[in-house]
Amino acid sequence: MTPAGSTATLSAAEARRVSLAAQGFANSPKIAKRRPFDKALSKLHVLQIDSVNVFSRSHYMPVFSRHGCYAQDNLDDHLWRSGEFTEYWAHEAAFIPVSDRPLFGWRMDDFRARHTRDGRWERLAPSIEAVRERLRSDGPQLVRELEDGPRQKRGPWWDWSDTKHAVEVLFAAGEVVSAGRESFQRRYALADQVIAEPHLRTVDRATAQRELVARAARSLGVGTLADIADYHRLKTPEAKAAVADLVESGELTQVEVEGWLGKNGTPEIAWLHRDAAIPSRLAPNALLTPFDPIVWFRPRAERIHDFHYRIEIYTPKEKRQFGYYCLPLLVGGRLAGRIDLKADRPGGTLLVQAAWQEPGAPQHTSDVVAELLRAAADWQGLSDIRSTGVGNLDLRLRN
Q1: d(CA 73, CA 284)
Q2: Helices and strands (H, E) in the chain, number of each type
Q3: CB neighbours of 263 closer than 8 A, spacing ≥ 6?
Q4: Measured between alpha carbons, how far is 65 from 68 in angstroms, rounded to an integer?
Q5: pTM
Q6: CA atoms of 388 and 214, how far apart (whole Å)
């Protein structure tokens, strides 16, 4: 028990186990066969989307990382066709439960206000109205279907056409939603064409942000204010106010974690969620997407796992240190390396472009990686595994 008036403490190892347990990692991979993704989605409640498909699209990875092989088509059906999920800017672009959509109404209002202030809404007004009318009359459309005639002249943002930019402005403001994807391009619809009325309601800003902070803290287990704010990309003062409310209600408890120090070397304040478990032992092995919550907030990955990670897809090839799209490697509950993978689908081969281990990686890291790569190849329907030999991790591949 912690004496009254004092701050609870966690060791660095306890905090690491708390964070992994909260994120859905467990020693037992047993999951429901019909919907194997439910447990992971419940733990994360935000599934980040990214277009890179060199090995696997990012939103497929967290379920595989936590539970192993499953059918990706089943997850697609669940996310896009069950009516239980929708897309929005919840962290970056992400899937969220459609029932959580009202919690982001304040962000939709902020986007609309920002685009009004910077003149985009006025400049794009003709295209915005044209998009509204077309979706209202013809139903869900891809951008290319919304663009009549020759492709429009590109605008100043990301080389987008005015139609594409108008659709994205409406998406950010909540008027337009994703009604599925084709070749990973969104099919857009008016919100009330796809979303049930109860999920179109609004929640006041303070209440919504308090709930988002509560969910972030539950998904993290233990975290600093910066960790908690980053989960849904809240501004620090707003997250701080919500944390104070949750401390008062007893949902969060202030703690000190061994080795979590601020810039001035003093202990950094952290908060433990009341539902957080502190497993006596938790040692999962997994390949992670670069957009897994375990690593997506880089300061947290460094603080918990002493793991410095950056994505190098935008780094010129000659300047890359580890590889184009390295997947963080979890061994024994620690981030122990990174593997640059590519799926050669026509050749039926999983290509290991580079394999690196961190200083102090467990001795059995090579054996773990061999098992994880075999599982990854099977999941992607690839029969062979080949390595370039680049990197300091000795692979013991078995085909």
Answers
A1: 26
A2: 15, 14
A3: none
A4: 6
A5: 0.92
A6: 45
d(CA 366, CA 275) in angstroms, rounded, equals 35
Separation between Cα atoms, residue 172 and residue 143, nearest integer Å = 15
Q: Which residue in 112, 79, 83, 82 sits closest to 93, CA to CA?
A: 79
CA atoms within 13 A on the CB side of 35: 11
Q: Encode pLDDT of 287-344 as tens digits.
A: 999 999 999 999 999 999 999 999 999 899 999 999 999 999 999 999 999 999 999 9
In the sheet where 334-344 sits, what is the strand order? 286-287, 326-331, 334-344, 349-357, 384-387
DSSP state letter for 151: P
| Helix 205-220 with 105-117: angle, nearest 10 deg | 120
Long-range CB pairs of 345-348 (<8 Å, 24+ gap) are 345/380, 345/381, 345/382, 347/384, 348/381, 348/382, 348/383, 348/384
Cα–Cα separations (whole angstroms), residue 341 to 328, 334, 335? 11, 20, 17
Single out the residue of 182, 147, 176 nearest to residue 161, CA to CA. Answer: 147
Residue carrying structure tokens 């989307």:
49
Say if residue 122 is exposed, middle or buried (CB neighbours under 10 Å; 0-12, 13-18, 19+): exposed
